[in-house]
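Worked example (supplementary).
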Amino acid sequence: MADSIITKGLTVAFDGRLALEDVTVEIPVPSITVIIGPNGAGKSVFLRSLIGSIKPSSGSISVMGVDPVAHPENVRRLVSYVAQKEKFSYPVPISVNEVVTMGLLADKSIPRLHTRSGDLKVKEALMVVDMGDQYERPFDKLSGGQQQRVLLARSIIREPRVLVLDEPFNAVDVATQSLMIDYLQRLREQQVGIIIVTHDTNPLACLMEQIMILNKKLIDFGPPKKVLRQEVLAVVYGNNARVLDGEPCPIIVTGDIHG
Amino acid sequence: MVDFLAPFLIRAYVAVILSGIAASAGSVAVLRGVSYLPAEASHAALGGVSIAVFLGYLFGAGVDPFYFAVLFSAASAVLVAYAGGRVDKESLNAALGGVMAVSLAVFALLRGLVPANLKVVIDGYLVGDILLLTNKDLMQLGVTVALAVFFELLFYHEVMYICFDAEGSEAMGINVKFYDYLMFFLIGLSGGLMAKIFGSLLVFALVLAPAAAARMFSAHVRTYLINTVILTVLLGMVGLLMSIYLDLPSSGMIAALTSAAYVASLLYFKAMKKG
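After joint prediction of all chains, the assembly is encoded as:
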């Protein structure tokens, strides 16, 4: 199907160790899909397989009808990926606008000349993530949350059909998180497919349309109300996790619950 | 009275300018996290020259050591990238040490097998002498520098993006592997030709010290590369003139100045941060 991401029996191994095993799933595009799983469950490997950065040991992947192993360059025009970033290479003195310009120039032919219209696009993308006033600022002088917003701007400037985010809310304050979620919602309204790996589904509780639980194998996939059950949550969060009843959206609580 | 416009001095001035331009590769090495690579490549030049001289000695054919030197340097840098896996800095550093050890072993072995008159050719790359460069040397250096600069300018964006965020660059469709190898190749090439001008022993001081100093007062990749070139040329010229005036070895004088500039910049910026 051209409007979905399909994996069939996707298996990925590194150095003789399985990172993903026999994952078969169909993610509709557009939609918002959240992937959760314990550490080392293969969540990031799954995302990187979708963009052709990691080759599967067996199985197949189709991203909107394109095979990322055979045609990674075609998939990378459809999919924008925001990697999980704990730290950047700070020896590189680079400004906010240059980081966002990367997204624009990456699709151009060498020598990737920057134009005035491109500059306007960069400014617009920065305004969208509320970073318009930081245009000239060195990237390494920004907070973690601001850096994440700039990286989001770098991804969306490419006008992808699918946006893939790996732990986008790490080191992000609540205000930034809320701003990013608002923006993701707008992207969804514009028919962009969004796949997010996160440890905490609660900020996305009312937005997520599918949830995918991974622990090297696919544990479950489907609408949150169907997937978020006690036995499934135990795989990710342990036995103390449960979904709060009576909430409009599925809120997960972990640890002891009083009252 | 020294004639500052003597042909051998004019050639030395040109060599300083060429080395300044080539030193921009030192900045790229700093950005890429392989600061020691130019020094490794310049030592690999010794292995290349030794092979060229040894082959010439064995077969009596005239093999130009310069081409062997720069190609060996560039190839050794690519080998470092391959052996080090390009990503993990510890593996890269280990590979760097290993490849340098091989080059030095080749140098030490082959140097011992050639007669004294040929040892001089090899030793020229060990300590260098900017005042002995010929017009042919300058032509070779000029072409190599032009080649390196052409690719640096053509792939400026790729180099900057990969140094900043290799994973993100790959996800955006940039062929990280290809450009990374090309980057290592060009850094190696520059290290090799710097060995020809200043001698491999001092390349570290001449390539890395200005690049590291320039990094401290450059807020942008483009200005960083330009500042490195300006600083290297400026210190190179001052060092060269001082060495002539004081009758001291030129490479040593220039290396002393670049090292002093690095230490002074370091102390200044440390003091500024505290203040």
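Two points are worth noting when inspecting this output. The longest strand of chain A covers residues 17-28. Chain A has one domain: 4-253.
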